[in-house]
Amino acid sequence: MEHLIEIFNRFKEREAAGNSPLYVYWCGKIVEDQAILNLISHIPKEQPKPNLFFASVQFVAAQKNHPLYSYIQHPKLSFYELEQSFQQLINLCQLYEVELIHCFQTKYVQTNEINRATYLYPIFSEIAKMTKLPLSLIEIGTSAGLLLNLDHFHYAISEKNSVIEFGNPNSDLQLTAQNLGEPLKSVFPFSVQNRIGYDLNIIDLTKEEDYLWLNALIWPEQIERKERLKQVRKLNQSITKQLLEEDFLTSLPNITAKLDETTQIVIFHTHVANQFPEKLKKDFLQLLNQLSNTRAIYHVYNNLFDGHLHVDFIQNGHTSSLKVIQHYDGHGKYFDWNEQTE
Question: Which helix (H) or strand (E) holds 35?
Answer without folding.
Answer: helix 34-40
